[in-house]
Each structure stands twice: as C-alpha cells, then as structure tokens.
C-alpha cells in the first residue's frame, strides 16, 4: 500500500518558515495572503495493509511529539 | 480561501532525504517499507478565489522548476 504521512507543527508552535514565506509573498506584492504554515510530507510504499504503522513511523522517527503533529492517510 | 501547495521533487530526481528515511526505517526493523519520497506542504490563507495564484507562488518563490513539481489544492 501507499501511505502519506504529513508532519506539521502544532497550532500553538510558531512556524518561523511559514512567517518567512508570508513576508516574502508580501514583498512580492501578494498582500491578499494572510497566513502561511508549513509541513512535511512523506510518501511511503510498503507491503501490508496496516495503516497504524504510519503512526509508528511518526512516533519512532519522523516527528518530535513536543512540537509536531502527524496525519496518516492511505494514498490510493 | 485556504489552499495547500505541495512541492515535491520530480520523479527522476534522486530524493536523498527519502533514501535516508528509508534506511532509518530498515534499521528500525521495518523491512516492509520499499520506498520513501518527501515533499513540503504550504498551508496558505488568502483573500479571493483564484486558485491559480497558488501556481504563481510556486513559480516565483516556493519551487525550483529544474527539480521540483507543484500541486495546488483548495482546502475546504
């Protein structure tokens, strides 16, 4: 199966990269943009059908539980 | 509106970070994983309804057209 794991910062954690992109978009004249947050996606191909493995990968490798949250989706 | 911009490497470009995650998952014993590729997501809040702005942001700021591809989605 293919799964997508999306790792983002928790809502209460400041996203410096997002703020930097927001500033750059304003400098380019896109004043209609009001907020930018960022995240990381991992596209994983694996044998088996156990979606919960995705959360294991988060816990053990991909995310820092203090500042990150994880979303795991099946990619069909 | 809210849009999500997903920036990934083109299929023919080697994804060193993905390879590194794959190796780490194998070291953790997850031999069922056969491939990992990575990408970056930008969650953008903006005024207006023009989804094509997302592609402008890619062209002008977020993506390197030599190695990246962009996907823009409305986030409802």
Termini separation of chain A:
8 Å
Q: Would you tell me the structural class of the helices and strands of chain A? A: alpha+beta
- Looking at how many chains there are and whether they match, the oligomeric state comes to homodimer
CATH architect. name of chain A: 2-Layer Sandwich
pLDDT < 50 runs, ≥5 residues of chain A = none
State the order of secondary-structure elements of chain A, H for helix, E for strand: EHEHE
Main beta sheet of chain A: 3 strands, antiparallel
Total count of domains of chain A: 1
* Most residues in contact, chain pair and counts: A-B, 31 and 31 residues
Shape of chain A: elongated
Helical residues, percent of chain A: 25-40%
Strand order of the largest sheet of chain A: 2-1-3
Number of strands of chain A: 3
Structure characterization notes:
Two copies of one chain form a homodimer. Chain A has two helices and three strands, in the order βαβαβ. Chain A is an alpha+beta fold. Chain A has one domain: Phosphoribosylformylglycinamidine synthase subunit PurS (Mth169, Chain: A). Strand 2 of chain A pairs antiparallel with strand 2 of chain B.
Question: What keyword list fits this structure?
Answer:
about 80 residues, homodimer, alpha+beta, Mth169, Chain: A, three-stranded antiparallel β-sheet
Fold topology:
2 copies of one chain form a homodimer.
Chain A: E1 2-9, H1 16-27, E2 33-46, H2 52-62, E3 68-74
Antiparallel strand pairs in A: 1-2, 1-3
